[in-house]
Amino acid sequence: MRAEFLGKDPESSEGDSPTLFATDRTDRVTYIAQGWKVTDPQALADVGSVPDHETLIEIPEEVLKFYARRYAQEKGTDN
Predict the structure, then answer these.
(1) pTM for the model
(2) CA pair distance 44, 55, nearest whole angstrom
(3) Residue 38 has what DSSP assignment?
(4) Where exactly are the structural domains of the chain?
(5) Compositional bias (Basic and acidic residues) at which positions (predicted)?
(6) Which of 19, 37, 46, 67 would you call most buried, defined as having the most Cβ atoms within 10 angstroms of its Cβ?
(7) What phi and psi, each to the nearest 5 degrees, are found at residue 61?
(8) Using the 8-state DSSP alphabet, how is residue 57 labeled?
(9) Percent helix, strand and coil across the chain, each rounded to 5?
(10) Helix/strand number for the chain, H first, E second
(11) Are 2 and 38 in contact (CB under 8 A)?
């Protein structure tokens, strides 16, 4: 599996950048998100049990805009 850089949070400092990548999987469309590991006890309690092979990350809304842009381009609705 390969990862294509889509964008990073423009408000983050160097080396501390929530980032979004698209993968080249052929069986389904997936993304890799780099973000801040969620350690807040209340947030973890609200989410509940997380399987050992998964983790929770927090990313700013600005990073999700890179997904929206790619989706619009793929669907031909990018203006």
Answers:
(1) 0.75
(2) 11
(3) P
(4) 3-75
(5) 1-11
(6) 19
(7) -55, -35
(8) E
(9) 30, 25, 50
(10) 2, 5
(11) no
Helix residue ranges, H only, the chain: 41-47, 61-75
| Contact between residue 54 and residue 37 where contact means Cβ atoms under 8 Å apart | no
Strand partners, 7: 20
Q: Which amino acid is at 38?
A: V
Closest listed residue to residue 61, CA positions, set 29, 24, 23, 35: 35
pLDDT, residue 21, reads 93
Q: How confident is the prediction along the chain (79 residues), in pLDDT tens digits per residue? A: 999 999 988 887 766 689 999 999 999 989 999 999 999 999 999 999 999 999 999 988 888 888 888 888 888 876 5
Strands ordered across the beta sheet of 19-23: 3-8, 19-23, 31-34
pLDDT computed for residue 79 by the predictor: 58
Three-state secondary structure call for residue 60: coil
